[in-house]
């Protein structure tokens, strides 16, 4: 898996925005799903920042507490909260 980022420590100019290639290798067994897989949220958490509302997953995905995501390629995935199977049942005991 390859992760691209931008240099921020370089001097201003064209070289400052040059992509830096970083290789992320999952060492979990079985391996975590890739960032482009439908089940990418199932990857192991490698860094969590609950005070800021986000976590970094093993596959390079940044997962936000509202279920939004930022993929390693810069693509933004909108929040996708679970839909209540029984609308109007909140707070009521289903028997």
What does this structure look like?
This protein has 95 residues and is mainly beta. The protein has one domain. Helix content is 0%, strand content 27%. The protein contains no helices and 7 strands. The strands form 2 sheets. The protein has a 5-stranded antiparallel beta sheet with strand order 3-4-5-6-7, with no helix packed on it. The chain has a two-stranded antiparallel sheet with strand order 1-2. The N terminus is likely disordered.
| Major sheet attributes | 5 strands, antiparallel
- Counting DSSP E segments of at least 2 residues, the number of strands comes to 7
Q: Give the overall form.
A: globular
Task: Supply the helix-strand structural class.
Answer: mainly beta
Helix fraction? under 10%
Relative strand content = 25-35%
Strand order of the largest sheet: 3-4-5-6-7
Look at the structure and give the mean pLDDT: 76
Number of domains: 1
| Uncertain regions spanning at least 5 consecutive residues | 1-10
The rounded distance between the terminal residues' Cα atoms is: 48 Å
Output the number of helix runs: 0
Q: What is the H/E string? A: EEEEEEE
* Radius of gyration over C-alpha positions, nearest whole angstrom: 18 Å
């Amino acid at each position: 898996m390859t992760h691209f980022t931008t240099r921020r420590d370089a001097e201003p100019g064209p070289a400052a925005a040059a992509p830096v290639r970083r290789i992320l290798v999952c060492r979990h067994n079985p391996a975590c799903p890739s960032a482009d897989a439908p089940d990418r949220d199932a990857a192991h958490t490698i860094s969590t920042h609950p005070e800021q509302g986000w976590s970094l997953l093993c596959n390079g995905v940044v997962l936000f507490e509202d279920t939004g995501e930022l993929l390693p390629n810069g693509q933004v995935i909108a929040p996708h909260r679970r839909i209540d199977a029984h609308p109007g049942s909140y707070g009521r005991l289903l028997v």
